[in-house]
Amino acid sequence: MVDTVRGQVPADQLGTVLMHEHVFVLDEEIRRNYPEFWDEEERVADAIRRLREMVSRGVSTIVDPTVIGLGRDVERVARINAEVDLNIIVATGLYTYDAVPLSLRMLGPGTLLGGEDPLVGMFVKDITEGIAGTGIKAAFLKCAIEEELTPGVERVLNAVAEAHQRTGAPITVHTSPGHRTGLVAQEVLRRSGVDLGQVVIGHSGDTTDTDYLRELVDNGSYLGMDRFGLELLLPTDERVATIAELADAGLADRMVLAHDASCHNSWFPHGLVEESLPNWHFTHIHDAVLPALREAGVTEQQLTTMLVDNPRRYFG
């Protein structure tokens, strides 16, 4: 059984899964203190419309890795999910490229006050009891490493590893292929006793370096080919060609697909995504990418493996 916003769902009934999508990415301090940047009813209605459009293409489940640092609000997501027939699987964890939040810097191993890292207890509670008193349980863990392994990033990786050991929840890591930090994350998690077969190395689709990708696979992890539509980082045709090459090499069972899109992302000025990145939305994969993959020689069975079978195994 897999915990979702609407309750538990058998892993074999998740259907077609997009493995890395956000309902919202927000800065909650900005949102609360400068309300001119946010219209709650407008944003909720827009999210319902966008998610319904995704469902119309045959998507049954999205995996939402929005955690602390990205503006997680599962109550708002639950309100939206009540209007959309979609499984939304939410995460626990912490998103940072450098340090932990100031409120945690004096607590935990090696800090002024010492003791057990409070991050571990926070993550475990989200998985075993639920988030913020809602009863909605996280089903996986999320962390990030961008250009380098800072002390703060390593601390989060270690806390995620400990929470994984205590709960069995799988892990997704934001990484930078250009800096090959997927390998760094794998090494830190491996040292902490994580089974790398329960890890998705996120944003692996941002590169055509198949030697790097094969090394990640050889270490046991799934490749998150999860930024379709972000043409500024890598054009769709190059992403398609890379997946087709790996699938032809028998590695479809190590890849999962997604856009890393959102209904609204406060990192970007209103309207910028639609104008500058017109393909970065929830239906791009079904409308354009799957036909392109078929044209490149990827079989229906391989597509099912990436969209249905691999997510089921990851959560199973």
At the third CATH level, what is the topology name?
Answer: TIM Barrel
CATH architecture: Alpha-Beta Barrel
The CATH homologous superfamily: Metal-dependent hydrolases
Structural class: alpha/beta
Uncertain spans: none
Strand order of the largest sheet: 3-5-6-7-8-9-10-11
- Count of folded domains: 1
Largest sheet: 8 strands, parallel
N→C terminal distance: 8 Å
Radius of gyration: 19 Å
Number of strands: 12
Mean pLDDT: 96
Percent of residues in helices: 25-40%
Order of helices and strands: EEEEHHEHEHEHEHEHEHEEHHH
In CATH's first tier, which class applies?
A: Alpha Beta
- By DSSP (H or I, 4+ residues per run), the number of helices equals 11
Strand composition percent: 5-15%
Overall, the morphology is: globular
Binding site for Zn(2+) 1: 20, 22, 142, 260
Protein name: Phosphotriesterase-related protein
Cofactor: a divalent metal cation
Binding site for Zn(2+) 2: 142, 174, 203
Describe the fold and architecture.
This protein has 316 residues and is α/β, with parallel strands linked by helices. It has a single domain (2-315), classed as Alpha-Beta Barrel (TIM Barrel). Helices cover 40% and strands 15% of the residues. The chain contains eleven helices and twelve strands. The chain has helices at 28-33, 40-56, 74-81, 118-128, 151-167, 181-191, 210-218, 236-248, 272-276, 284-295, 300-315, and strands spanning 2-4, 7-9, 17-18, 22-25, 61-64, 87-93, 140-144, 171-174, 199-202, 222-225, 255-257, 262-265. Strands 3-5-6-7-8-9-10-11 form an eight-stranded parallel sheet. Strands 1-2 form a two-stranded antiparallel sheet. Strands 4-12 form a two-stranded parallel ribbon. Helix 2 crosses helix 3 (74-81) and helix 4 (118-128) runs parallel beside helix 5. It is globular and about 60 Å long. The N and C termini lie close together (8 Å).
